[in-house]
Amino acid sequence: MLKGNDLDYKYIYVAFLVTNTNMGKLIRLFTRNEYSHVTLAFNKELSRMYSFARYHVNSPISGGFVVELPDRYLLNNEDVMVKLCKLPVTEEEFKRIHQEIVYFHTNREEMLYNTPNAVLSLLRRRLHVKNAYTCLEFVTHLLRIPNVLAIRELESRLDQYVVYSGSFRDIVKWQQTFSDDNDYLIRRHVVMVVLDTVFHFKKIVVRLIRA
Fold it and tell me: Which of 45, 118, 119, 121 reaches 20 to 30 Å from 150, CA-CA?
C-alpha cells in the first residue's frame, strides 16, 4: 500500500479467519486454504468487523452485509485462528472506506451474499450480481485491489502487512454485547432456514435476469 513516514497515514485492519462452521470447513476442504473468511476493521482489537456473511448461525446460505462482533466466534468457549494485517492508508482513503461502509450499512437490506461467486471462484470464474458480494469481493472492493479470486491470493498480496497470527481470543477486547450482530446468535427453525434459502436464491436469480 503506502510507503513513507507513519505520521502520513492512518491504518485499517484486514483479518483472515478460520471459521468453525460446517460451511467454513467445506470451503477450506475445497480451497485447501487455512482461512475461509476475511473481514475488515478500523481497530486492532477487532471490536467491530465488516464483511459479507450469513445472518444466522444455523442458516448457512442466506446472508449479506454484516457487522461482526467477536462473540460471533468466541461464544461457548470457542476460539478460532486469525491472521491480522495492518494496512496503511491515506486519510482520504480512510474516509472513503468509512463512507462506503456507512453506505453498505444504510442499504444493507439491498445487499446479498454472492452465493454463485462463492462456488464459481473454485473454477476461477465470476458473475456480476448487483449489490451482491462474497466476503473476499467486499474487502477487495473496499481496498480497490482488482482480479482477486481466492482468499489465498489476497493473503499473498497483504503478506508484508501481517502483524499477528494466532488465537483470535488472545487479541480481541471482548465482552458479550447487544448490537447489530446479535441476531446472528438466534437459531432459526428448520422451516425458516429453508425459506431463508429459497428467498435468497430467488433474489439472486431475479438480479441475474435483470442484469
Answer: 45
Bridge partners (DSSP) listed for residue 166: 82
Measured CA to CA in angstroms, residue 50 lies from 14, 130, 154, 207 at distances of 10, 19, 17, 24
Q: Is residue 1 part of a domain?
A: no
CB neighbours of 33 closer than 8 A, spacing ≥ 6? 27, 150, 151, 152, 155
Domain that residue 84 falls in: 6-210
Q: Is residue 202 included in any domain, yes or no? A: yes
Cell 499473498 belongs to: 156
Coil, helix or strand at residue 5: coil
Does residue 85 belong to any structural domain of this protein?
A: yes
Give dist(CA 161, CA 86) in Å, integer. 5
Domain count, the chain: 1
**Tens digits of residue pLDDT in 33-58:** 789 899 999 999 998 999 999 999 88
